[in-house]
Amino acid sequence: MALRIDYTNMMGEVVSGGVAADAWAAAERAFRDARAVFERRRASGELGFLALPTDEQLHEQSTTFARDAEGRFDDVVILGIGGSALGPIALRTALLPPSWNMLGMDERVGLPRLHVLDNVDPRTIGHLLDRLELRRALFIVTSKSGGTAETMAQYLVVRDRLNRVLGDAAPRHLVFVTDPQKGALRTIARAGAIPTVDIPAAVGGRFSVLTPVGILPAALVGIDTAALLAGAGEMARRCTGERLSDDPAGVFAMLQYLAHTRHGRHVQVLMPYSDALRDVAAWFVQLWAESLGKHRTAKDEGVGPTPVAALGATDQHSQVQLFMEGPPDKTVTFIAVNERDAGGDVTIPHLHGDVKELGYLGGHSLGDLLDIEQRATAGALAVRGRPNMTIHLDRVDAWHLGALFMLLEIATVYAGALYDVNPLDQPGVELGKQFTYAQLGRADAEQARQEWNMLPEPEPRFCV
Ligand code: PA5
Predict the structure, then answer these.
(1) Could you read off the pLDDT of 340-390 as tens digits, one per residue?
(2) Which of 387, 397, 383 is nearest to 338 (CA)?
(3) How far apart (Å, rounded) are the C-alpha atoms in residues 424 and 196?
(4) Probe target for ligand 1 pocket from 46, 78, 84, 86, with the most ligand atoms within 8 Å of CB
(5) Does ligand 1 come within 6 angstroms of the Cβ of 84?
(6) Superfamily for 49-223?
(7) In the chain, % of residues over pLDDT 70
(8) Which numeric CATH code is attached to 3-42+229-419?
(9) CA–CA separation, 110 vs 92, rounded Å?
(10) What is the value of pTM for the model shown?
(11) Ligand 1 centre from 153 Cα, in Å?
């Protein structure tokens, strides 16, 4: 089992727009400093995600709940947003068979369907709730803070339906995933005898996929959660930062940072060549954007890369034109999968052998086509001076996914140190939240209400 990073095409000696040799040679020292910041954060208890692979008690909270729930539910619905939803979505897409929710009970071997809301669009929520058999549904309400407006609104809508349909049995169809001590969800759970599992205090939303945020739903749908944690643990051990070139998270973070700050590559694309991994790219976008896009007080400036999610080969017919010939402001990180599931590949038949546009395809497999297209795109970008790297996974399974999550989470903390920002907070979303509270009449939003009311009213301009 292995995950390796091929960064040949990130280097200036190979790709004209790549990282210059002198910058890479000097990076060891910058990495030592970043590593020291990382160690300080770890020592002060801020990097709770590092301890998750060995936290057996926490793991057991999820597996015990899942065991007790066996056979009771046909549908599991996660209410949450941001870091409380993107991890479970990535897990579902990667590790459950495609179209899981469309499969019959037999094909799902009695395991429930898994829905993740991740928004408050009434169309989606109304449609789902109307279709569910509430007596056979479990709602996981996930919120680290226990008070996020969107998630609380989802909960209130669901709770009202449950109360009306199931009466006193409603709490048996709920489980809260939240901070061990704080927040409104914790208070409601205590008062209403609703089961809860913990998100450790030292793990923030976008770093929480390997807490019960991801592990509980994964356990409920039969994903091998021990393997997820084992892969993550192995990656955490590999990223010990003795030497930059031995530390995959260090290599990833440093190359992206240098490509940005030395060579203007501020747009950083993650492009798996695997449908199973497409939502890992969406998960990464949140992690990288919310962690690194910050106001750097020292120089009173906004910094940070712009992550973009893409999918191979699909985006070869969409975004790749831009990556090849558009502004030279991007890096592309591919994710390639070395082995497919046994029996999971499809051979292209030898039909229309006399038609030159089709004949050459016969005898290859669809998996071969995908892999060859990935290598071809990486090579083509390199020829055009566009730096890129490839993360190779042996296969898409729980172990490798756990390792990939951990790799990118550690890289994010290193990158925070390199950009000299705090990767663990998100003060930039606060003002919008306060203005929302103000307009919805939240009692403690008086100051925001005043600020909102004082905003100048520009002359409206519409195009109708
Ligand atoms: O990374 C973060 O902290 C955020 O993106 C949160 O995940 C998101 O805002 C949801 O917050 P909560 O889990 O507190 O409901």
Answers:
(1) 876 689 999 999 999 999 999 999 999 999 999 999 999 999 999 999 999
(2) 397
(3) 24
(4) 84
(5) yes
(6) Glucose-6-phosphate isomerase like protein; domain 1 (3.40.50.10490)
(7) 100
(8) 3.40.50.10490
(9) 16
(10) 0.97
(11) 15
